[in-house]
Specification:
alpha+beta; 102 residues; 28% helix; 3 helices
Length: 102
């Protein structure tokens, strides 16, 4: 991309996380990324004190097959997502797009 610095979704998440760290937030809030046994990924992001607490998120459910799926929602103060083993980048992009949406 000429003239633009491309930032992948993981780099973007690192930057977003670091921007929330204020000496206090990171002690009680944060991001958890784990694996699932079916197989897949699970992500839980605490939205407390991020400015996203009251931002609407439309739950998503994409099921192409057992290994190509994404489910994500906002529940109380948490963004939650689960996906297939090769969908983590796509799930992170959904969160990124929602956060960056004006």
């Amino acid at each position: 991309m000429k003239g633009k610095i491309y930032m992948d979704n993981l780099q973007w998440l690192e930057k977003w996380y670091f921007s929330k760290c204020d000496g206090d937030w990171e002690h009680f809030n944060g991001i958890h990324i784990t694996t699932l046994d079916n197989p897949g990924w699970k992500i839980v992001i605490n939205l407390s004190d991020t400015g996203l607490e009251n931002k609407n998120f439309e739950n998503m459910k994409i099921e192409n097959n057992e290994n190509d799926r994404i489910h994500c929602s906002k529940e109380n103060m948490f963004f939650k997502g689960a996906c297939g083993p090769l969908n983590l980048n796509e799930l992170l992009n959904i969160f990124r797009t929602w956060v960056d949406k004006i």
